[in-house]
Amino acid sequence: FFYLTTNINEVAFDVYKYRFAKKIMEKNSRYLMLYGGSSVTEGDDNQYNSSYPLIVDKRLRPVMDELGIEFRVENIAQANNGCLPYGWCYESMGEEDPDFVNWEQSYNCGHDAPSFELTARVAGTSKYRGSVHFTASGGFSPKFLPPSNFTPPYCEEEWTVESVKAPHTPLKHWYPSESDLEAERTKLNDFNKKSCSYCRFLNPRYDSSVSPTGFNIWTLGKPCPYHLTDDKGQPNHATQECDASNFAYTVVSDVPRFFSQEGGRYDSKNGGGARHHPTKSFHMWRGEAITYIHVLTILSAINMIEKDMKGGKKRSELAKEYADKLEKLQGPLPEPKYCDKYYCQYKPKCYTDFKPHFNKKYTLSELIVGKSEWIEDWTNFKSLRHNKDVKGNLYLKIIPEQTGKVLICGMMGESLKHTTFYMDLHAAEDESKDLSTYSYETRDSKLPKLVPWTNRKYFLAECTELYDVPSGKHILGIVRNETIKTDHVS
User: Fold this and answer.
1) Secondary structure element (H or E) that encloses residue 463, with its range
2) What angle do CA 369, 372, 375 make, to 5 degrees?
């Protein structure tokens, strides 16, 4: 059951191993995990600190501290967000050059191959050549199953190995040997071949370059080896195939089962939540699945380092050796196959005030010049520049790079349809000039006359693309059509 939902191929396993070996040997190394996603990853109907990214933080932080690696986990997920422009903003809302990038957007763009590839390339274009992790959205609640016969239940945070006492068969802590770790590597690779937990999302061309992993409870196992029951415990003989959720409902006697009635509780005031959101225990399972892959590869790296250091090699020598092996394993990042239409051949710069925002740079606020009646609206814990019932323009400093294209995006479904864009070309070239009082009325009369920027087209449901913008530092004016009373511009 576990290996169906979470697996990794042997090349990706070795990439993780050499990455950690290199970081352990280097001084002042850092491991950055960026978690993008929807309300599932955000932790809706639970507490933010019980979301699966924060479970990974809790489990891995003591390990990273012991190894001397600076560890950062940044959960930038948001409820009810589109895959774009959000997919361009991983390194704006989170910090730059991640080692690990999480995607979880099955509900919003679960069949959009360009979006999957775009996220993989966020990891692949990091200067540390990160890994991508695809987390399938959704979940299921085992609240119809019998309660656990263990105290505390296996699915709760308080459970430990020592919790299993007579009359149950006692358990022992696992201290894996080198051969145990190699056996796990082989087992994970075998399951990856039979039932890949991320291949639903990523083209195999990226298998080495972004060392993918995944979590997918809907991965099929064929044929199903178990007598199946549905989520109410009733016999279900309708299929000879099964996904991971079917395994969860299969009763195994005298084993501390992760899925019991207690696993149906949410970390909310009344213990309830939406069916499509993971329960508290389900978040713990997702987080510990990611942790397991990391710990196995870290232990393998430590074993390798211990052997190599016994041979008399210095830290700096080993760091270089591991870096060379890592580069060889990863190979070059392939050319885009699907995501060209999302401009994934370029590394995007996204400016937003959306929260969470761990990066001190790339805020929308830093681009705003002049005075405006537009306001910040913190609805749904997001920050946006919003103009609904007020008058006035919004002025932004823009610096187009590479493509001559600038995308101006609103909230979901708001493409700034009823707005006029004016471009004040090269008005921001002089960085010493105070632009805090800028307006069209006070601008330098010696500059070229303002004209509406008509080189524009809609881009998806949220954005307007301005194209053929010349190089330079310009000021863009966004002017709302005030005759359309129902318009909502953001």
Assistant:
1) strand 463-466
2) 110
Q: What is the pLDDT of residues 52-76, one digit of tens each?
A: 999 999 999 999 999 999 999 999 9
Place of tokens 């199953």: 145
Give the amino acid at 290: I
Would strands 6-7 and 213-215 be described as parallel, antiparallel, or unpaired? antiparallel
Query: Which contiguous run of DSSP H or E holds residue 191?
Result: helix 178-194
Higher-pLDDT residue of 353 and 104 is 104
Regarding beta strands 368-369 and 30-35, do their DSSP bridges make them parallel or antiparallel, or are they unpaired? Answer: unpaired
Give the DSSP per-residue string, 127-183: TT--EEEEE-------TTSPPPSSSS-TTSTT--GGG--TTSPP-------HHHHHH
Which residue matches tokens 């891995």? 60
Whether the model pTM is above 0.85: yes
Side chain identity at 121, as an amino acid letter?
R
Under 8 Å between Cβ of 358 and 94: yes
Burial class (CB within 10 angstroms; exposed 0-12, middle 13-18, buried 19+) of 247: buried
| Residues pairing with 70 in the sheet | 30
Q: Could you report the per-residue pLDDT of 273-326, keeping only the tens digit for each? A: 998 899 999 999 999 999 999 999 999 999 999 999 998 889 999 999 999 999
The string of pLDDT tens digits covering residues 365-424 is 899 998 877 777 666 545 455 655 556 788 999 999 878 999 998 876 666 877 889 999
Distance between CA atoms of residues 232 and 161, nearest Å: 29
Sorted by sequence, the CB contacts under 8 Å of residue 151 that are 6+ apart come out as 163
36 burial via Cβ count (<10 Å: 0-12, 13-18, 19+): buried
Tell me the pLDDT tens digit for each residue of 89-122: 999 999 999 999 999 999 888 899 999 999 999 9
Summary mean pLDDT of the chain: 87
Beta strands in 16-98 (DSSP E): 30-35, 70-75
| Pair type for strands 375-377 and 384-386 | antiparallel
The answer to whether the beta carbons of residues 424 and 443 sit under 8 Å apart is yes
Q: What is the rounded distance in angstroms from the CA atom of residue 393 to the CA atom of residue 396? A: 10
Copy the structure tokens of residue 85: 């422009």
